[in-house]
Here is the input.
Amino acid sequence: MPDLIHIHPNDNVVVALRPIPAGTIFEGVTAAIDIPQGHKMALKPLTAGEQVVKYGFPIGHATASIAPGDWVHTHNMKTNLSGEMEYTYNPNLTWPEPVPPRSFRGYRRLDGKVGIRNEIWIIPTVGCVNDVAKALVRENQDLVTGSIDGLYTFPHPFGCSQTGADHAQTRKLLAALTRHPNAGAVLVLSLGCENLTHEQFVAELGQYDPNRVQFLTCQQVEDEMEAGREALCQCAAYAAQFTRQEIPASELVIGMKCGGSDGLSGITANPTVGRFSDMLVAQGGSTVLTEVPEMFGAEGFLMDRCVNEEVFGKAVNMINGFKDYFLRHGEVVYENPSPGNKAGGITTLEDKSCGCVQKGGSAPIVDVIGYGEPVCKKGLNMLYGPGNDLVSSTALTAAGAHMVLFTTGRGTPFGAPAPTMKIATNTPLATKKQGWIDFNAGVVADGTRTLEEAASDLMDLVLEVASGKQTRAEQRGFREISIFKDGVVL
Here is the structure.
């Protein structure tokens, strides 16, 4: 396995798969200085203003003369991004080749939906009852028996003192979580005087099974712990009827997310997930790609894959709408990557984005959905959401993702409400943080597995987790949500 990788024939930089000492020769070019793992080395001379090309796309431009063998990073290149752009639809659709169908053991709900967990969830409608919800979880663990996989709650600070779009987003997000099929039953816990009223929540929730969803308003009862216990007993009785059965993989919805990315993210973990996505789509399943700000500069990978002009128009509106969101708040659209990203070898937002969107594989994009909206079409979907790890993973769960595949080059312990599988971009991380990492895509950089082999291994693990195997985050009880907020707090 070479020490550096030339990702695309048109690239004028290569990426270090491991730390490269000065003097290393690759494709006739000698490294002028030590090149850290995940960082870029120039293959050709570049003048100030000339485009730096990686993944076959410009990821920024040189700010000074760069000689072959030089380290290329923040000291000698910068982004090309500014504001909104105009796009033209030039469809280029390639459907994945059919693959043999697979299955997993999940839970078939009475409405026909499928879950991969049979849990009881407590959804607080307002932050004021967070501690009540946590106490109810703590004091009612005896209800977790038989086929019930767990009892959890997801505290948050909102549901009151919000107006307009923020209030609507909180309402939509919490209702979407209530509908999630990984929850066999749900207790919606309210205070009684919050902005998010019971009537509003019920209207947002729409049609529901009153045996599956229980409601408790704390101000209306003498003892909320006693009333909560009674409601949770009803939830447990309802959820206990479900047992695992064989279900086609075509019914899976898998969210895809990256965080703490490094220079190997777009070479190992993200394209492994991309190939997995193509494999699942080929079986009739669904995948969801989000993190809109980390699509900026990588639109060329996505726009022409929209299945029709309607979906293309929704994609354009989503991306330019998010840029407008930045600009309305006086922020530049390229205020990214993070310090950790840069330390890992990512220089510009285009560099990060081109690696990020590798998770989408090559399948056509069948739909673009809004925040808090469900996946309705089989295939690869795009979801409106920010890059923030907790916010976007929560949005993926709310969209109906049974599981979130989370690639990382730096590591992170958090978990979303849906099982959150951590995929390392490099072997040192996977070795060091075995309590965090579920799957090591660093084997691609090590040369022990090809991308296709790693994707096949990942598919096997996804089906195991869908059948009940816990992720590292689940084993530690790490689950939380974060709701997208834009406006004022009263």
